Sequence to fold (195 residues):
Amino acid sequence: MQTKLSRRDFLKLSGATAGGLFLFSKPIGMNLARGTRPFSLHKPIGETPTICCFCAVGCGAIVAAQDGRVVNLEGDPDHPISQGSLCSKGIALAQLNTVDGEINSRRLQKVRYRAPGSPVWEEKSWHWAIEQIARRIKGMRDKYLITADGEGRTVNRLEAIASLGGAALDNEECSLIVKAMRALGLVYIEHQARI
Ligand code: SF4
Fold:
């Protein structure tokens, strides 16, 4: 019967074999020890499995970080969906955190708002942004909801707002968004991947 060896199994086996050779072959161990300085095997770098956030495929990646910076990122061969592969967006995932060894200072972490006609971007809180979105949706719906068509049939549709989903949304998020938009009466519901 053929046994399938995963990447992790392979690394464990290689480590055990190398350790065995080191322990039991005294001359090799002595030669290695001679003229070298002791070093710690406990480096602060750990591999952490993660999921790519860029689209709903959800490929698996293994990320290694040191001092808060990503030092390596690669596809996870043990992941059941992607089996070690990442597309060009996925392989650039590390840049969310680190660019050329430094924390990516260009990543926006706060709300930026530019009022209509204004050339200035203002920094706002998440609370402010969510309240604004809710107020504007309600205002548009109150003003533009079409309750009946030309023949008096109830339609309750809102043509003044459109919804555009993004590729990072997964199935469950898309399902909830469509339910919420339909409840508001939207008819123009699209997704970035279909454009
Ligand atoms: S963006 Fe690419 S790597 Fe990331 S989940 Fe989608 S297909 Fe996978």
Q: What stands out?
A: The longest helix spans residues 126-144. Confidence is low (pLDDT under 50) at residues 19-31. The longest strand covers residues 154-165.
